[in-house]
Amino acid sequence: MPIRPGLAALAIAALVLVGCAARPLTLGPPSPTPTDDSACASPGEASDAVVVSGDLGNSPVIAADGPFSVDRVERTVLIEGSGDPVAPGDLVEVAITIVNATTGEQAPGTASARVLLDEGAVQPGLLATILCATPGSRIVGVVPAAEAFGSAGQPELAIGPDDDLVFVVDVLALVPLQADGVAVALPDGFPELGLEFDADGRPTVTIPAGDPPGTLLSATLLEGTGAVVGADDEFLVQFQGVNWRTGDVFDETWGDAPRSLVDLLPGVDAALVGRAVGSRVVVIVPPADGFGSAGSPSSGIAGTDTVVYVVDILATTPPAA
């Protein structure tokens, strides 16, 4: 089955825009997730027939003797990485190439994405392909339509109704789900945050007595050692927002999923520029730099309320060249 060029690059960019923008990839409905090696998808005649060359993380050259029609996810490891296998709930950085298993048409380009391996966050066939891999692996998954785009297909990717798919996935890295930097003392007047968090990494913020500062302030609680966030980068974070007046949490990613920070609040965005990945940053945001005189009634924030954000910087993505 010769692999033919696909459609315009915009199609794959639209499918995995979350990867370019550093958001977790969302493709479709959930699938049961393996809990041990015996539940990992196994090789089959179709996945073993896919030949891939090229460097890990770059657009691969794919050839196969198809077409393929499978009734389960077949999964073959072409390059074996190292370390612990990825598991449900992990966040992984991957490079994905898609081929129509029926026609041999390859979707244009290889998409970089950060994929949350959780129910409802990734297409079942892609989830089964990635689970159990170790960082540094290249995997082929041949996926039945029912665990991909189903009867709807994906016309922008030249995938018709009930077409099976081939995924070539390079598992590049495991992305931490919370900051892992070195502890730094916060300045006087900042909320109190201990360094012992719950099992999910959720911080507990204790607001000090008295009035809040009248200006925007930020400080680092955990100092990371990763890449430094640039002014035009898009960065992946966990965060918690607390109302200074009430001490109530009004927004957070903990218990949900990391989020790509896009205009959360200008003062918070600006405070993260120049900080390193792996850092936990505390930002005190007065009304003028936060929700303004209108506040946010739906969140219980009055027009005079100062808010506090505790932000873990998990990853950063520079703008495309």
From TrEMBL:
Example GO molecular function: peptidyl-prolyl cis-trans isomerase activity
Family annotation (InterPro entries): PPIase_dom_sf, PPIase_FKBP_dom
EC identifiers of the protein: 5.2.1.8
Record keywords, A-Z: Isomerase, Rotamase, Signal
Pfam families in the record: FKBP_C
All copies of domain PPIase FKBP-type, residue ranges: 89-175, 232-317
Keyword flag Isomerase: yes
Leader sequence segment: 1-21
Catalytic activities: [protein]-peptidylproline (omega=180) = [protein]-peptidylproline (omega=0)
Lineage, opening ranks: Bacteria, Bacillati, Actinomycetota, Actinomycetes, Micrococcales
Protein name: peptidylprolyl isomerase
